[in-house]
Write the structure tokens for this entry.
Amino acid sequence: MNLENDLKRALRRESPAPGFAGRVLQRIEHADRAVPVRRPAWWRAAAASVTLGLVLGGYATHKVVEYRRGERAKEQVLVAMHLAGEKVRYAQQQVHNIGSHD
Amino acid sequence: MRKLILTLALTALTLGAAAPASAQKINLDFPGLADRATEVVDVTLDASMLRMAAKFLSNDDRDERAVRDMIAGLEGIYVRSYEFATEGEYDRGLIDRIKSQLGPTWKPLVTVRSKTKENVNIFANMQGEKVTGLVVIAAEPREFTVVHINGPIDIDRLADLEGKFGIPNISKGRKDDHDDDND
């Protein structure tokens, strides 16, 4: 029985302190009125320029690296094909020489 | 969803089955050999590098165009070439080591044995009538060269390339240069 009374007491409806609703409304109103910090136009232009510069710089660097890799790959292909061709040609010549002796 | 998984599984199986026939990896690592050599050529170009190189080969130059056509469809080019100051610097067993890696589809095309000049072994990976890979092993007393071309290749056209590219003397990079490249 005591427990029931304790629970009733603990869960009983209580009115807020006087002025509570007014304070809540005042805060909401204040939050709505808060204006975001606006940076000056030159600041935004500078940020855009820096971003653009970084993007273009990164792209240019990527292109240069890719160009160097491509040129190196091309050089390697030419060396490889030259060597392979040289050896195959030598072997073919030896076979032709044997054929011409017969 | 089930259909997609089944399709993917079948594709993977098909690719897996096709891979050993065309894309055989051959180990061309020869530890310590570069250290003893005076000049070294080490070229490793996989399919993506070959595609990139193809973009840089000129369309206007006849020779470069020929090379570009030839490397289209290749899966890799691997070259190891070593030149030594004195004879007997490399183990002739290396040749057998390479040969032993070649599977049953690899057929010897040409074997040149010379007492004075270089010995050349050419092996082709045959898929029916098509050559889908080439290994060239050239052994001289002071020079050892292995070329592995992985993919379909026209051997006659390859032989025709010799001495072209407008490069008067493709000398092997000095070992110092090679070392610098690796730095």
In short: The mean pLDDT of chain A is 86. Chain A touches chain B at residues 66, 69-71, 73-74, 76-92, 94-95 (CB under 8 Å).
